[in-house]
């Protein structure tokens, strides 16, 4: 198939899922065209069947806001025509589904029919999309998509309860390339660079937005390090980073916390991690938790959104109510204080991640694409 994928090119989970999906489809022989405003961060190699088309938005002083949707829909029309693309897959409803629908309509005017699949990722529904300023447009573009998928059952339920959706939402969970985690583990872990003998390593990876409750991450670690020697690895960039750095200083733990910034080598960091912290306010799936689990790292998370579909309480980690820092830190200690228990949780986490193997999940998208093309 010839497939156009629209996504955010940044470190956010939706862009990562879209990119990994495209690359896997390309490996299977499909021709993939990524269309976005810059090259997606995980898209390192372009090849015969992996193409990237940049959406340029010319600056014009009349516009207070430059019209990205307009530029994107025009780019979609041109690319779909030029490469005879058979299916459009947009990730994140805002504004991609909206721009995709406009492109579909423009193409229809020229006698070209192309099915559009929209994948809902989380904040496009639970945070941004439900804002009254966007809600009518998001409802419209979901209902006008030919097929809609969501990354968890919880997100699908939220979508039905927040919007007036008349379409079936197919749940296709996020996935992980288990080979990559294994390859990373074949290289020796650089644990000794980060921590002393006997210290436990806790890790958090995100885009440091409010929804991730970064202050809770720091406070959980603060409680843990009172009882056992430990270090905290903070990976990512975002608006809450400075607050987190200040909080570490206030609590006097700055020497025990390492801020990495954005990284393309999270497997190497997860390789020497003992525990992953994800106390988010809301999380439709928690791809970062799955990435940790695939590297054998148990997870202490909140029980919001779809996290309970990924992290299994008492098996791959523990789940607590949002903001229950004391319970989260006690659970962290339960896992970290005992070598045997830690090994058991690590093994469970790795085993459980296998149900989200890329090889099992990508065929679900392929099946949906074939149906969409057949019915268009
Ligand atoms: O978590 C973020 O802030 C990034 C966001 C995104 O769309 O890039 O992540 C969402 O999509 C991921 C991939 O499907 C999910 O794993 C995340 O749970 C989801 N984030 C939230 O729901 C907050």
UniProtKB/TrEMBL annotation:
Gene behind the chain? bshA
Q: Where is the Glycosyltransferase subfamily 4-like N-terminal domain?
A: 11-179
Q: Which InterPro entries match?
A: Glyco_trans_1 (IPR001296), Glyco_trans_4-like_N (IPR028098), Glycosyltransferase_grp1 (IPR050194), Thiol_BshA (IPR023881)
Q: Which organism is it from?
A: Flavobacterium chuncheonense
What is the recorded name of this protein? N-acetyl-alpha-D-glucosaminyl L-malate synthase BshA
Domain Glycosyl transferase family, by residue range, is 192-351
Q: Which Pfam families match?
A: Glyco_transf_4 (PF13439), Glycos_transf_1 (PF00534)
């Amino acid at each position: 198939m010839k497939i156009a994928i629209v996504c955010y090119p940044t470190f956010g989970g939706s862009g990562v899922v879209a990119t990994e999906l495209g690359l896997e489809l390309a490996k299977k022989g499909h021709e993939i065209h990524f269309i976005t405003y810059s090259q997606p961060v995980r898209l390192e190699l372009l090849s015969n069947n992996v193409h990237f088309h940049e959406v340029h938005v010319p600056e014009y002083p009349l516009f207070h806001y430059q019209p990205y949707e307009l530029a994107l829909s025009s780019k979609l029309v041109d690319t779909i025509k030029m490469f005879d693309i058979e299916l459009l897959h947009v990730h994140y409803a805002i504004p991609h589904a909206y721009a995709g629908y406009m492109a579909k309509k423009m193409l229809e005017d020229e006698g070209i029919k192309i099915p559009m699949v929209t994948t809902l990722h989380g904040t496009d529904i639970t945070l941004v999309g439900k804002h009254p300023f966007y809600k009518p447009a998001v409802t419209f573009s979901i209902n006008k998509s030919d097929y809609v998928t969501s990354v968890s059952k919880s997100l699908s339920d939220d979508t039905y309860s927040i919007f007036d959706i008349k379409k079936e939402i197919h749940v296709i969970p996020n996935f992980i390339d288990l080979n990559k985690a294994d390859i990373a583990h074949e290289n020796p872990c650089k644990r000794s660079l980060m921590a002393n003998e006997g210290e436990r390593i806790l890790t958090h990876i995100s885009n440091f937005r409010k929804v991730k409750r970064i202050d809770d991450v720091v406070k959980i670690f603060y409680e843990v390090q009172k009882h056992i020697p430990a270090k905290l690895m903070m990976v990512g960039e975002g608006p809450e980073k400075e607050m987190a750095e200040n909080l570490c200083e206030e609590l006097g733990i700055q020497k025990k916390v390492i801020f990495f910034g954005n990284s393309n080598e999270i497997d190497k960091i997860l390789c020497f991690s003992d525990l992953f912290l994800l106390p988010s306010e809301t999380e439709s799936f928690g791809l970062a938790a799955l990435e940790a689990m695939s590297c054998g790292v148990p997870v202490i998370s909140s029980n919001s959104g779809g996290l309970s579909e990924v992290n299994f309480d008492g098996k791959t980690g523990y789940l607590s109510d949002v903001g229950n820092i004391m319970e989260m830190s006690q659970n962290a200690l339960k896992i970290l204080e005992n070598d045997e228990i830690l090994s058991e949780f690590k093994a469970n986490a790795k085993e459980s991640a296998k149900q989200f193997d890329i090889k099992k999940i990508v065929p679900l998208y392929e099946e949906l694409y074939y149906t969409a093309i057949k019915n268009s």
